[in-house]
Specification:
Elements lengths: L1 H20 L3 H10 E2 L20 E4 L2 E6 L6 E3 L12 E3 L4 E3 L14 E3 L6 E2 L13 E3 L4 E5 L12 E3 L4 E3 L14 E3 L6 E2 L13 E3 L4 E5 L12 E3 L4 E4 L13 E3 L4 E5 L12 E3 L4 E3 L14 E3 L22 E3 L6 E3 L12 E3 L4 E5 L12 E3 L4 E4 L13 E3 L4 E2 L15 E3 L21 E3 L6 E2 L13 E3 L4 E4 L13 E3 L4 E4 L13 E3 L4 E5 L12 E3 L4 E4 L12 E3 L4 E5 L12 E3 L4 E4 L13 E3 L4 E5 L12 E3 L4 E5 L12 E3 L4 E4 L13 E3 L4 E5 L12 E3 L4 E4 L13 E3 L4 E2 L16 E3 L6 E3 L12 E3 L4 E5 L12 E3 L4 E5 L19 E2 L6 H6 L7 H41 L8 H10 L3 H8 L5 H4 L11 H4 L10 H4 L5
Parallel strand pairs: 3-5, 4-6, 5-7, 7-9, 8-10, 9-11, 10-12, 11-13, 13-15, 14-16, 15-17, 16-18, 17-19, 18-20, 19-21, 20-22, 21-23, 23-24, 24-26, 25-27, 26-28, 27-29, 28-30, 29-31, 30-32, 32-33, 33-35, 34-36, 35-37, 36-38, 37-39, 38-40, 39-41, 40-42, 41-43, 42-44, 43-45, 44-46, 45-47, 46-48, ...
Antiparallel strand pairs: 1-4, 2-3
The structure holds 2-acetamido-2-deoxy-beta-D-glucopyranose (3 copies).
One 2-acetamido-2-deoxy-beta-D-glucopyranose binds next to strand 3.
Protein name: non-specific serine/threonine protein kinase
GO molecular function: ATP binding; protein serine/threonine kinase activity
Membrane topology: Single-pass type I membrane protein
Length: 975
C-alpha cells in the first residue's frame, strides 16, 4: 500500500516537473546533481531555462539528442539516470576524471549512436548490456582503467564503425565474435594485456581500415586471413610476441599505408611480395629475428617514406637498385643487422632522405665523396661499422645536417674544415676512430653544436681558442687524444656546458678562472694530464658539479674550491699535490658516494662532519699525512664498500663499529700507527674481500672470527705484533689467494688446515715469526701457489715430499729454520738462498748432494763443485733478473690499466670498474639513446606513449602515430 502510494507520489512529482518544462529536464537535473562540476560547466542548468539551451545539450524537434560534457573537468561517477534520456543519440563524457563503472542501464538507450567515455578513470568490466545498443556506431572507451575480458556481447553491435578500447587493462584474448562487426572501420586495441592469437575471424570485418593492436601480448603466427581485409590502411601489431614468418598474404593489402610489426619474434625472410604494397608509406619490421637479404625496393614501394628494418639479422648488401630519383623516402633505418659491403652509391639517389641510419653493421670501405647529394639529410648515422678513409669534405654541404655519427669506425685523417659550414649541426660523434691532426678552428663556427665527442682518436695540437663561440655546447668529450697546451679561457663562455671530459691527454697549464661561468657543469674529468697550479677559488661558484675527477695531475693548493656544490657524488683527486686539511664544506654534499684523495699532501684529521655521508661507498685517503683517530662518525656510512686509509699517521685502536659495515669489501689500514687488538666483530663483515693491516702495532692474538670472512681474497697482517697461534678457522677463508702473516710473533705450529686454502696463489708468507714444528705435508695441496715464504721461523723436520706438487711455485724461501733431510728434487732449481741457514742439515741440489753431505760431512767443496755453483748462481740470478724484469713490466702494464680504470669515475679495485669504464667511455649519453632507438622515437612510431603523459591530451591523440606522414591514419586511431 505504502509502495503504491510512494509510486503515485513520485509520478505526480515527475509529472509536475515535466509539466513545468515540457521535457525531461528533471532527469538532467538529477544527472547534474550526481556529477562534481568544479568549473561550473553545468552552471546554466536550472529549472528556469529551457533544457535545450543548457550547456552541452542539443535538442532536435524538442527532443534531447546529444549530451556533450567532454573536457569539462567533471568528476564523480556516470549517473545512472542518463538512461531516462531515451532520445539520446550522442553521449560524450570523454576527457574528464570520472571514476567507477559503466552503469549497465545505459544499455537501454536504444537510439544511442555515439558513446564516448574515453580518457577518464573508469574501471570494472564492460557491461554485457552494452550489446543492447543496437544503433551504436561509435564506441570509444579507451584510456581508462577497465579490466577483464572484452565482452563478446560487443559483436551484437551490428552498426558499429569505430571501436576504441586502447590504453586499458583488458586481458584474455580478442573475442572471435569480433568478426561479426561487418561495418567496423577502426579497431583500436593498443596497450592492453591481450593475449592469445589474432582470431582468423577478423577477416569478417570487411570494411576495416585501421587495426591497431600494438603493445599487447598477442602470440602465435600473424593470421594470413588479415590479407583479405582489402580496405586496411593501417596495420599496427608492434610490440607483441608474434612469431613465425610474415604472411605473404599481407601483400594483398593494396590500400595499406602503414605497417608496423616492430618488436615481435618474427623470423624467416621478408616476403618479396611485400614489394606489391605500392601505397605503403611506412614499413617498420624492426626488432624481430628476420634473416636473409633486403629485398624491398623503393623502386617498387613507390610511396614509401619510412623503411625501418633495424635490429634484425639481415645479411648481404644494401640492394644496388634501391632508390629511384623520384623517391620520397625520408627515413631509412637499417641499424643493427649484419649488412656488409660498402656504402652503396645508389643510395645517393634517395635525395629526399632526412635520416639515414646504417649503424652497427659490417659495412666498410670509404664513404662516397658525393654524400652531399643527400641534400635534405638531417641525421647521418654510420657508427659502429668498418668505414675507413677520411671524412669527405662534401659533408660540409649538407646544410640541414643536425647529427653526424661516425663513431666506432676506422676513419683516419683530419676533420675537414668544411664541416665548419654546418650551421644546424648539433651533434658530432667521431669517437673510437683513428683520426689525426688538429681540431679545426672552423668547427667553432658550427653555432648550433651541442655535443662534441672525439674520444679515443689521435687528435693533437691545441683545443681551438675560439671554442667559446659554441654557446649551445652541452657536452665536450675529448678524452684519450694527444691534445696539448692549456685549456683556452674562452671555454668558460660555453655557459651551457654540462659535461667536460678532457682526461688522458697532454694538456697543461692551470685552470682558467673563466670556469666560474660554467654554472651548468655537472661532470668534469681532467685526469691523466699535466695540469698544475692551485685551483681558481671561483670554482666554488659551480653549484651543480656532481662528478669531479682531477686525478693524476700536478694540481696543488687547497681542495676548497671544489667543495661549493651540494650535489657532488664523486670526487677523485688522487695523485696530485693538494695540501692543507680536508675542507669541512665537503660534507654539504650529502650524496657523495666516492671520495678519493689519495697520494696528496693533505694534513689534519678526518672532519667529524663526514658522519653525514650516508651514501658514501668508496673512501680512499691513502698516502697523505693525515692524523688522529678514525672517527666513530664514519660508522654512519653504512654503504661503505672501500675504506682505504693506508700510509698516513692515523692512531688509536681499530673501532668495533667496523663490524657493522655490512657492505665492506676492502679495508686497508696499513702503514699507520694503529694499535690494540683486532676486534672479533670484524668477523661480521662477511663481504670483505681484502683486509690489510700491514705495518701497524696491532697486537694480541689473531681473532679466530677471521675465519668468518669467507669471501676474503687478501689477508695481510704483516709487520705487527700479533702473537699466539695461527687460528685454525682461517681454513674457512677458502677464497684466499694472498695470505701474509709475516713479521709478527706468531707461535705454535703451522696448522695442517692451511693446506685447505687451495686458491692461494700470489703468496703464502709466514716468515719472521716464531712458528715451530714440522711443515705440514698438506701444504702440497696449494697447487696454484706461486710464492711460499716460511723463512726465519723455527720449523724443523724434513721438507715434506708432497711440496713437490707445487709446480706453480717460482719463489720459495725456507731459509733460517731447522729443517733437515733431502730437498725435494723439484726444488733443485731454486737458489741457495732459499734453503740457507738450516743448520747445514738440508741436502741435495741446490745444496750439496746428500751423498756428499754424508761422505764429507761438513767437508769442503771440490773445485768443480765451486765452479758449478758459481755458474749456477750466475745463471739463476740472470734468470731471476729476467723474471723480475718481466714481472715489473707486467705490473707496470697492469698498473697503467688499473690506474686508468681507477681514474674514470674515481673507481678502482673490483671488476665492475672495467664495466664502469666502458660505460663512461660511452657516457656520451647520446650513445646509449642510440642503441635503444630512443633517438628515432621508434617507440612512438610504434604507437607507444609513456605512462607519465598518459593523461595529457596530446598523448592520446597526436602521439599515437608519430612522424609527419601519419596525420591521416591518425584519425583512424582512436582510443
Ligand atoms: C521524456 O522521457 C520519456 C521517458 O522517460 C520519453 O518517453 C519522452 O519522449 C521524453 N520527452 C521529451 C520531451 O524528451
Ligand atoms: C563534444 O564537444 C567537443 C568540444 O567541446 C567536441 O570537440 C567534440 O567533438 C564533441 N563531441 C561530439 C561527439 O560531438
Ligand atoms: C583478467 O584479469 C582479471 C583481473 O582483472 C583476472 O581475474 C582474470 O583472471 C584475468 N583473466 C585472464 C584470462 O588472464
Amino acid at each position: 500500500m505504502a509502495g503504491i502510494l510512494f509510486l503515485f507520489f513520485s509520478v505526480i512529482t515527475a509529472a509536475v516537473l515535466a509539466g513545468v518544462h515540457g521535457d525531461n529536464s528533471s532527469w538532467l537535473l538529477k544527472v547534474k546533481s550526481e556529477l562534481v562540476d568544479p568549473s561550473g560547466v553545468m552552471e546554466n542548468w536550472s529549472p528556469g531555462v529551457n533544457a535545450c539551451n543548457w550547456n552541452g545539450v542539443i535538442c532536435s524537434n524538442g527532443q534531447i539528442v546529444s549530451l556533450n560534457l567532454s573536457w569539462a573537468g567533471l568528476s564523480g561517477t556516470i549517473p545512472r539516470e542518463l538512461w531516462r534520456l531515451s532520445s539520446l543519440q550522442t553521449l560524450d563524457l570523454s576527457s574528464n576524471t570520472l571514476t567507477g563503472e559503466i552503469p549497465s542501464e545505459l544499455g537501454q538507450l536504444q537510439n544511442l549512436q555515439i558513446l564516448l567515455l574515453h580518457s577518464n578513470y573508469l574501471s570494472g568490466m564492460i557491461p554485457e548490456e552494452i550489446g543492447l545498443l543496437k544503433s551504436l556506431q561509435v564506441l570509444r572507451i579507451g584510456n581508462n582503467m577497465f579490466s577483464g575480458e572484452i565482452t563478446p556481447a560487443i559483436s551484437n553491435l551490428n552498426e558499429l564503425r569505430v571501436l576504441g578500447l586502447a590504453f586499458c587493462q583488458f586481458n584474455g584474448s580478442i573475442p572471435v565474435e569480433i568478426g561479426n562487426l561487418k561495418h567496423l572501420t577502426s579497431l583500436d586495441l593498443q596497450n592492453n594485456s591481450l593475449s592469445g592469437l589474432i582470431p582468423k575471424e577478423i577477416s569478417g570485418c570487411k570494411e576495416l581500415q585501421n587495426f591497431a593492436a600494438s603493445n599487447n601480448m598477442l602470440e602465435g603466427v600473424i593470421t594470413p586471413s588479415l590479407g583479405s581485409l582489402k580496405s586496411l590502411e593501417v596495420l599496427n601489431l608492434a610490440n607483441n610476441s608474434l612469431s613465425g614468418s610474415i604472411p605473404v598474404s599481407l601483400s594483398n593489402l593494396q590500400n595499406l599505408k602503414y605497417l608496423s610489426l616492430l618488436g615481435n619474434r618474427l623470423s624467416g625472410q621478408i616476403p618479396i611480395e611485400l614489394n606489391q604494397l605500392s601505397k605503403l608509406e611506412v614499413l617498420d619490421l624492426s626488432r624481430n629475428k628476420l634473416s636473409g637479404t633486403i629485398n624491398l625496393l623503393n623502386t617498387q614501394l613507390k610511396s614509401l617514406t619510412a623503411l625501418v628494418l633495424s635490429d634484425n639479422g639481415l645479411t648481404g648488401t644494401i640492394p644496388r637498385n634501391f632508390c629511384l630519383n623520384i623517391s620520397s623516402m625520408q627515413q631509412l633505418l637499417l641499424a643493427r643487422n649484419k649488412l656488409s659491403g660498402s656504402f652503396p652509391l645508389e643510395l645517393l639517389s634517395c635525395s629526399s632522405l632526412l635520416q639515414l641510419d646504417l649503424s652497427d653493421n659490417s659495412l666498410g670501405g670509404e664513404l662516397p665523396p658525393f654524400l652531399d647529394k643527400l641534400e635534405s639529410l638531417t641525421d647521418l648515422v654510420l657508427n659502429n661499422n668498418s668505414f675507413s678513409g677520411t671524412i669527405p669534405p662534401e659533408i660540409g654541404n649538407l646544410s640541414n645536417l643536425e647529427s653526424l655519427y661516425l663513431f666506432g669506425n676506422r676513419m683516419t685523417g683530419r676533420i675537414p674544415v668544411e664541416l665548419g659550414k654546418l650551421q644546424r649541426l648539433e651533434v658530432i660523434y667521431l669517437y673510437d676512430n683513428q683520426m689525426t691532426g688538429e681540431i679545426p678552428t672552423e668547427l667553432t663556427n658550427c653555432s648550433s653544436l651541442k655535443e662534441i665527442d672525439f674520444f679515443g682518436n689521435h687528435f693533437s695540437g691545441l683545443i681551438p681558442k675560439t671554442i667559446g663561440k659554441l654557446k649551445q655546447l652541452v657536452l665536450l668529450h675529448l678524452r684519450q687524444n694527444d691534445l696539448s697546451g692549456p685549456i683556452p679561457p674562452s671555454l668558460g663562455f660555453c655557459t651551457k656546458l654540462q659535461i667536460l671530459a678532457l682526461a688522458d691527454n697532454k694538456l697543461s697549464g692551470s685552470l682558467p678562472s673563466t670556469f666560474r661561468f660554467l654554472s651548468e657543469l655537472s661532470t668534469i674529468t681532467l685526469y691523466n694530464n699535466s695540469f698544475e697550479g692551485p685551483l681558481p677559488s671561483s670554482l666554488f661558484l659551480l653549484k651543480n658539479l656532481k662528478i669531479i675527477n682531477f686525478s693524476h695531475n700536478k694540481f696543488m693548493g687547497s681542495i676548497f674550491p671544489l667543495t661549493g656544490s651540494n650535489f657532488l657524488t664523486a670526487l677523485d683527486l688522487t695523485n696530485n699535490s693538494f695540501s692543507g686539511p680536508i675542507p669541512i664544506s665537503l660534507a654539504t654534499s650529502r650524496n657523495l658516494s666516492r671520495l678519493r684523495l689519495a697520494q696528496n699532501r693533505l694534513t689534519g684529521s678526518i672532519p667529524s662532519e663526514f658522519s653525514q655521508f650516508t651514501e658514501l661507498n668508496f673512501i680512499d685517503l691513502s698516502f697523505n699525512s693525515l692524523i688522529g683517530e678514525v672517527l666513530p662518525q664514519l660508522s654512519n656510512c653504512k654503504k661503505l664498500e672501500h675504506l682505504l686509509l693506508k700510509n698516513n699517521q692515523f692512531t688509536g685502536v681499530m673501532p668495533l663499529w667496523l663490524g657493522s659495515l655490512k657492505e665492506l669489501g676492502e679495508l686497508d689500514l696499513s702503514s699507520n700507527n694503529f694499535h690494540g687488538i683486532v676486534p672479533k666483530e670484524l668477523g661480521n663483515c662477511s663481504k670483505l674481500l681484502k683486509l690489510s693491516l700491514y705495518s701497524n702495532n696491532f697486537s694480541s692474538e689473531i681473532p679466530e672470527e677471521i675465519g668468518d670472512l669467507t669471501s676474503l681474497n687478501v689477508l695481510n697482517l704483516q709487520r705487527n705484533n700479533f702473537s699466539g697461534p695461527i687460528p685454525v678457522k682461517i681454513q674457512q677463508c677458502k677464497k684466499l689467494y694472498e695470505l701474509r702473516l709475516s713479521e709478527n710473533s706468531l707461535t705454535g705450529s703451522i696448522p695442517v688446515e692451511l693446506g685447505g686454502l687451495t686458491e692461494l696463489q700470489v703468496i703464502l708468507d709466514l716468515s719472521k715469526n716464531l712458528l715451530a714444528g714440522e711443515i705440514p705435508s698438506s701444504l702440497g695441496n696449494l697447487m696454484k701457489l706461486e710464492r711460499l715464504n716460511m723463512s726465519s721461523n723455527q720449523l724443523q723436520g724434513d721438507i715434506p715430499s708432497s711440496l713437490g706438487k707445487l709446480t706453480s711455485l717460482h719463489k720459495l724461501n725456507l731459509s733460517n729454520n731447522h729443517l733437515q733431510g733431502q730437498i725435494p728434487t723439484i726444488f733443485s732449481g731454486f737458489p741457495l738462498t732459499s734453503f740457507m741457514g738450516n743448520d747445514h742439515r738440508l741436502c741435495g741440489p741446490p745444496l750439496v748432494s746428500c751423498l756428499e753431505s754424508e761422505e764429507h760431512g761438513k767437508g769442503r767443496l771440490s773445485n768443480s763443485q765451486v765452479v758449478g755453483i758459481v755458474v749456477a748462481i750466475v745463471l739463476t740470478s740472470t734468470l731471476i733478473c729476467l723474471v723480475m724484469l718481466y714481472i715489473m713490466l707486467r705490473i707496470w702494464c697492469n698498473w697503467r690499466k688499473v690506474s686508468i680504470s681507477n681514474s674514470d669515475y674515481g673507481i678502482g679495485g673490483t671488476d665492475q670498474n672495467q664495466q664502469k669504464k666502458e660505460s663512461e667511455k660511452k657516457w656520451a649519453f647520446k650513445g646509449e639513446k642510440w642503441r635503444t632507438g630512443e633517438y628515432w622515437k621508434m617507440d612512438s612510431l610504434a604507437l607507444v606513449t609513456s605512462q607519465d603523459n598518459k593523461k595529457s591530451p596530446s598523448s592520446t591523440t597526436s602521439c599515437i602515430l608519430n612522424l609527419k606522414m601519419a596525420q591521416d591514419s591518425m584519425e583512424h586511431t582512436l582510443v
